[in-house]
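FIELD: query
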Amino acid sequence: MVMSRRPQDVIIFMIGGTTYEESLAVYNLNKQNPGMKIILGGTTIHNFKSFAEEVHHATSGILMRYKIGKH
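FIELD: result
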């Protein structure tokens, strides 16, 4: 089945959170495509500090396994 129409509404929900930069990208896409509306949501909105903490938390187990495996 081939869709002949482009979607008019797109909802993006980011589990783990979204950033202000991603919000700006969605804003710009909405400005460039007036016939389509993109809605961005997430479990949280990250700033640089909270994003860095999230990455550190998510990778801490991986880094520990890597360090243990190297010895």
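FIELD: remark
The mean pLDDT is 85.
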